[in-house]
Each structure stands twice: as structure tokens, then as C-alpha cells.
Amino acid sequence: MMGVESEVDMSRKKPPRETSSATADIVHLNVGGRTFITNRQTLCYDPDSMIAKLVVDGSPFGPPQVDTHGHVFIDRDGDVFVHILNYLRRSGHFVGAPNDVAVLARILNEADYF
Predict the structure, then answer these.
(1) pTM, whole model, 2 decimals?
(2) Theoretical Cys-Cys bridge with 44: which of 4, 29, 48, 52, CB 3.0 to 4.6 Å?
(3) Each residue's pLDDT tens digit, 2-50
(4) How far is residue 60's CA from residue 46's CA, in Å, rounded to a whole number?
């Protein structure tokens, strides 16, 4: 009887997932406590930027700091980073800029950092 149960249990197990290069290019970020999911290509829009250098193989910064979920951790303002990420996703076009001058100043400050 145990042999039958073992065979049934074995048949229910899923085969291990293979990591494709497409999956490896997905990057999970934790910026100031906010989670973002994007791809490496987006973050490398400007190859000379800090964010691009952070996520490339052989990063000059060394291995990135990660949170408890394995997401790359960046201790910056996540509410502002969403604008930086959207800029990168739009190939360098800043669309939908906020009207608030203080928010624009924060975005400029974060853009200088990244």
C-alpha cells in the first residue's frame, strides 16, 4: 500500500522550473518599501546611470543589497521612483509630470541620484 501512495505522490509532483533568460531579466525592486517589477532592459535604458550599473552582471557596486523577499533593495523614495521608472519605460520621455513644484523638485533630486 505504501508503494502505491509513493507512486501517486510522485506523479503529483511538478517538475522543477527551468529559469529562462526572459525570467532572469525580470527585476524585482524594493525602493523605500514599495515593490516594483520591471525588466533589466528598462533599467539599462541609460547604461551610464547608477540604476543600470546596479543591475548588470559584474556591477561595479558588487552584489546588490536584497530584502527578505530577495528583491533588490534601494533606500530611496519609492513614491518618487515610480516617476523615474516610468521615464525609463518610456525611453526617456517624461509623460504626466505632476503640477506640484515640490514633487517636481523631489523627482529631479531622485533623477540626479539614479
Answers:
(1) 0.73
(2) 52
(3) 545 444 444 444 444 444 455 569 999 999 999 999 999 999 999 999 9
(4) 16
